[in-house]
Design goal:
heterotrimer; A mainly alpha; B mainly alpha; C alpha/beta; A: mainly alpha; Arc Repressor Mutant, subunit A; two-stranded antiparallel sheet; elongated; B: mainly alpha
Chain lengths: 123, 304, 307
């Protein structure tokens, strides 16, 4: 059973989880979202909660409702999400990460993006 | 009352194995004992002609087998019926039964119908049928297998069927007579569980004493004995001993042939017996007791 | 329920379109001279999963018994539009009721129970029961007395789940079940019973496990209803701030509805958004049902009139 933390309402946590999946292209743009029933069964949530999560994503412009067919991923949704995630990262996580790197005395030239190695160089 | 039949089916499913054992085990035992053991007859019987003796033995063994079967299953069923209000307490399944859409009345009536009517009647039927091999063993051992085969089976079967029908028809009548006692015991069991029956006996005893002191006559005792006596005669003997007309000199076969006629007359007498203020009064009391049982069950079927 | 619009409408006007399935007003149930259920009022519309929470002896079982006509209520009570005591049989025909999961008759075989229930309950499906039982370790020919307590519970659940009814009233249905069986039961609850037309009233001790399944909650303490709220309203209306004990006084000065304990510290529950400076003192947390449950059933004298 998915465990929910105590920070946000459960529907919000589900919305974040689904948004993360959208970012990975699951489901791809233009495709239908899994049904409320399927999601409810998967995460053992009340369908009303699932509905609220989907509504939040629709309000954010990531999903659209097609009459009689259900909810579909809006084209450009992952771009929108990526942009939003980027903004959040740069505003919240990056400053913290940068401060920590400074504290540890690691400069950007010393980090290798492709492997986990760190070259001890004189700054 | 649309769940009455399924509730009766429950009795069948719950007790069919016990019923089978109660029929087969004593039967098997008696057959074995009769086959191997010694059968002693008194002098009168020893003096009889083989034809007469075999007929007498056949009739006696049939009536006795049926009677024993009736008593065995009847007494067991009586106890099951009396305990039926509380029997599902032990495994707490009473809550399961209460969670189903069955009415309180039909839940109370179903075990009564099965154990106080159907089973005793069936016991008589089975008893008479099971009596055939018993009679074969008895007659075969005392007189001879050939004699058993050449018995006047036509007339025997007619008479025996008449007796059986007389008994079966008498069961509902007997139940009518015993109804207030049965319901009083059921109510007592419902309210006080295993103390119910003893408490009822004590209460009746005290009430009888009290009434006798007040009215100078043993009213309750007389009423109770009358009820029991009528219950007994509604099975057989309502027309008194006279109608039997057993002619000592006539051949036994004649008496046997007269049994169906006797059975019919006797049943008529038992029916006429019903037209009594005693029965009317006791049935009214039975109604009140059943109403009390309904109230008890509606309150959640626990101690009131 | 595939479009979000329905959910918004349902949340806004819960009983506007149809009659509620259960409606209780000033309901009390006496147990001897004690009020086991004391002046309780609530409604349950269709399409809801309502958790009935309370300690042992709080009155949950008595309340449920009153709902199915097995206890005499005072006050107004209507279930499926019927009077429970008077129309008990009709009511039970439209209800799946489990008073306890360990109460199947011990003498019976599972197949015999299926036969009996087919005839006793007009909405029972024997085929469905066999399907559900096939997923458990309970055999059709097993005698109830040979089954472990957990298996009896599974069998009972399978039998009751095969009744096609609009209302489910379940008293501790997962007692005695292991984790896998509980999960299977919750999955079945979501898959089969959450179609927007049926409602479930379930009482349980395992508040954390069941919290995400619920749409509403009723909390009983010593017979009184201390909380009757939808989970959505809990999210929308209330703000919980977890804080250091050091700032407790400042928190208290902002007049929270409830002060309670959470893992690692204290928390304060506010009705609506507290002022920004107060919010800065603590970390925003989700007011979980467990915390609310503990808080409300431990200190009955707290101000609850806003609920």
């Amino acid at each position: 059973m998915t465990t929910w933390d105590d920070r946000q309402p459960i529907y919000q946590q589900l919305a974040d989880l689904l948004a993360a999946r959208l970012l990975d292209g699951d489901p791809p743009e233009g495709q239908a979202m899994p049904s409320v029933r399927a999601l409810a069964g998967q995460h053992l949530l009340n369908p009303l909660t699932v509905n609220r999560a989907l509504q939040a994503l629709a309000d954010a412009g990531l999903l659209e409702s097609r009459r009689g067919l259900g909810l579909f991923v809006v084209p450009g949704a992952s771009d929108k999400l990526r942009a939003a995630e980027r903004r959040r990262f740069l505003a919240e996580e990056w400053p913290r990460l940068r401060a920590k790197l400074r504290r540890l005395g690691i400069g950007s030239q010393q980090l290798d993006w492709d492997t986990d190695t760190f070259e001890e160089k004189r700054a | 009352m649309n769940n009455l039949l399924p509730l009766m089916q429950r009795e069948w499913l719950q007790h069919r194995f016990a019923w089978a054992m109660l029929v087969l085990v004593p039967l098997a035992l008696s057959l074995s004992v009769l086959t191997v053991g010694t059968i002693q007859l008194d002098d009168d019987m020893m003096a009889m002609q083989p034809r007469e003796l075999s007929l007498m033995l056949a009739m006696l063994s049939m009536v006795i087998t049926a009677a024993v079967m009736f008593l065995l299953l009847g007494i067991t069923s009586l106890f099951i019926a009396l305990g039926s209000p509380r029997r599902d307490d032990g495994d707490r399944s009473i809550e399961f039964w209460l969670s189903l859409p069955s009415g309180h009345a039909e839940s109370l009536v179903a075990p009564m119908l099965v154990h106080l009517l159907l089973v005793p009647a069936a016991a008589l039927l089975v008893g008479f049928v099971a009596a055939v091999p018993v009679s074969m063993v008895v007659v075969g051992r005392v007189v001879g297998f050939g004699e058993w085969l050449t018995l006047p089976w036509g007339r025997i079967i007619t008479s025996v069927t008449a007796l059986m029908l007389r008994g079966v028809a008498g069961v509902p009548l007997a139940l009518l007579w015993l109804l207030p006692l049965v319901l009083a015991a059921m109510l007592s069991n419902a309210l006080f569980r295993r103390w119910g029956l003893p408490l009822l006996v004590v209460a009746l005893g005290l009430l009888a004493q009290g009434l006798e002191r007040v009215f100078g006559q043993p009213l309750l005792t007389e009423a109770l004995s009358a009820l029991l006596a009528h219950a007994a005669t509604s099975m057989a003997g309502a027309s008194g001993g006279a109608s039997m007309q057993v002619d000592g000199n006539a051949a036994l076969i004649e008496s046997v042939s007269r049994l169906p006629g006797w059975a019919l007359r006797d049943f008529g007498a038992a029916l006429r017996d019903l037209a009594q203020p005693l029965l009317a009064g006791s049935l009214a009391l039975a109604g009140a007791l059943f109403a009390a049982l309904l109230v008890w069950r509606r309150r959640g079927a626990s101690v009131a | 329920m595939t479009t979000p619009d329905l959910a918004r409408a349902a949340a806004a006007a819960p009983a506007a379109s149809t009659e509620p399935l259960i409606s209780a007003r000033n309901l009390s149930v006496l147990y001897g001279r004690k009020k086991a259920v004391d002046d309780v009022s609530f409604t349950i519309p269709k399409g809801r999963v309502v958790g009935l929470l309370g300690h042992n002896g709080a009155g949950k079982t008595t309340l449920m018994k009153a709902l199915v006509g097995l206890a005499a209520p005072q006050g107004e009570l209507s279930v499926l539009g019927l009077q429970p005591q008077r129309d008990r049989v009709a009511l039970l025909q439209g209800t799946c009721y489990i008073p306890d999961v360990a109460i199947l008759p011990r003498w019976a075989r599972v197949s015999e129970l299926i036969t009996l229930m087919s005839r006793l309950h007009p909405r029972f499906s024997a085929e469905r029961a066999r399907q559900l039982l096939a997923r458990t370790s309970v055999g059709l020919n097993d005698k109830v007395k040979a089954l472990s307590k957990g298996m009896v519970a599974q069998a009972h659940l399978a039998l009751v789940a095969s009744i096609d009814a609009r209302l489910m009233i379940l008293d501790e249905p997962t007692l005695g079940l292991d984790v896998l069986s509980r999960k299977a039961f919750y999955e079945m609850l979501i898959d089969e019973w959450c179609d927007g037309e049926r409602s479930v009233l379930v009482s349980t001790h395992q508040v954390e496990e069941v919290e995400s399944l619920l749409s509403d909650v009723l909390m009983l303490n010593e017979g009184k209803l201390v909380l009757s709220i939808s989970l959505e309203e809990v999210d929308r209306r209330f703000v919980a701030l977890s804080h250091d004990p050091a700032v407790a006084d400042q928190m208290a000065a902002a007049h929270p509805l409830l002060k309670y304990r959470v893992q690692g510290g204290s928390a304060a529950l506010f009705d609506g958004e507290p002022p920004a400076d107060v919010q800065a003192l603590g970390r925003r947390v989700r007011p979980s049902l467990v915390d609310l449950f503990v808080a409300l059933t431990r200190k009955p004298e707290l101000d609850r009139q806003h609920f």
